[in-house]
Design a protein that fits this description.
Elements lengths: L3 E12 L2 E12 L3 E5 L6 H8 L7 E6 L2 E2 L4 H5 L2 E4 L11 H11 L4 H14 L15 H11 L7 E5 L7 H16 L3 E6 L2 H7 L2 E6 L2 E6 L1 H8 L2 E7 L4 H9 L4 E7 L2 E6 L2 H14 L4 E7 L3 H9 L6
Parallel strand pairs: 3-8, 3-9, 6-7, 7-8
Antiparallel strand pairs: 1-2, 1-4, 4-5, 9-10, 11-13, 11-14, 12-13
Helix pairs in contact: 3-4, 5-6, 8-11
Length: about 325
């Protein structure tokens, strides 16, 4: 891995009695596409707001390009691009006019501004519709213009906060392709989402956040591999939890068993063999299976195993 462009140490942020972020630490390498993942309310947006200077942490340290964010705030904010969840566009203006407006805010002028607007329009795939009013665009096209506004000043690091929320599948794929192209061009990207399939496709590494803490951080491949062959979530009637758990752990096809929210989470080395073993154990103990779910190994299954909660809550 290359040298870190961003180092985050022990970030904390509370709102009254609510502890939104509780001790988040991470490093992002130059040129990396890094994912911050988790359900709504996990602390992703609060963390992003601190990393971009919109909020001040109660405790902790942020270093970017070797400079402390507290003492070099304006200098570092000028090297960041932030694309928020909310659209920040003028609907009656065209994409070109919107980007020109934001480019002037960044201090671009004349020929340099026109050249950079053309470059960004090509990056986001909207050259052919550049002079149409934004209000005539689809939701996905508007989000691409939103991304373009964050690219005009050639930031060292781009923060994307839930950039595909509320768009159709075709538009979502176009946005993901744009993000991939930006990263291939050398832009460091921090990408927050609660769509795990996006993170699995895009990110070099991901940090899974829940209740304001990082509960796992690795490459998507390594996290998925840690799950084994898959995850079986089963609800059983009766009070034989310990007996069932011990029996299941002894099965060769079972990698581990945990009990959460009244259900057993079975990590399987071989899903089909583990399922057969589960049914045999339940029959032997005369237990009623009330719910049964089989999840193939992916990031969503990893998160469900770690937290016991669905990612889109």
């Amino acid at each position: 891995m290359s040298e870190p462009i961003l180092i985050v140490q022990d970030l904390h942020k509370s709102f009254g009695e609510i502890k939104a972020v509780r001790g988040i630490s991470l490093q992002v390498a130059q040129g990396e596409l890094f994912g911050l993942l988790g359900p709504n309310g996990a602390g992703k947006t609060t963390t992003l707001s601190m990393l971009t200077g919109l909020l001040s942490p109660d405790r902790g340290r942020i270093t970017m390009k070797g400079l402390d964010f507290r003492t070099h705030t304006h200098q570092l904010k000028a090297r960041m691009g932030l694309v928020p969840q909310e659209l920040a566009l003028y609907p009656a203006l065209s994409a070109r006019q919107n980007l020109t407006f934001f480019g002037r805010i960044y201090g671009l002028k004349g020929r340099d501004l026109r050249r950079r607007v053309d470059e960004v329009l090509e990056m986001i795939g909207l050259t052919g519709r550049a002079d149409d009013p934004v209000e005539t665009y689809s939701g996905g096209m508007k989000r691409r213009v939103n991304i373009g506004a964050g690219l005009l000043h050639k930031p060292d690091i781009l923060f994307l906060d839930e950039p595909t929320v509320g768009v159709d599948p075709q538009s979502r794929n176009a946005i993901l392709e744009s993000v991939e192209a930006l990263n291939r061009a050398g832009v460091t990207v921090i990408y927050t989402t609660h769509y795990m399939e996006e993170a699995q496709r895009l990110c070099h590494r991901v940090a899974i956040v829940d209740e304001g803490q990082i509960i796992a951080l690795d490459t998507p491949t390594a996290l998925i591999r840690s799950l084994g062959g898959g995850l079986i979530v089963v609800g059983l009637a009766g009070e034989a939890a310990e007996t069932v758990t011990d029996r299941l752990r002894s099965l060769p096809a079972v990698q581990g068993v945990q009990r959460r929210d009244g259900k057993l989470h079975i990590r399987a080395r071989h899903t089909q063999e583990a399922l057969v073993g589960l049914l045999e154990v339940a029959n032997r103990l005369d237990l009623l299976i009330t719910t049964l779910e089989i999840l193939e190994p992916n990031l969503e299954a990893v998160f469900l195993h770690l937290t016991g909660r669905r990612l889109r809550e």
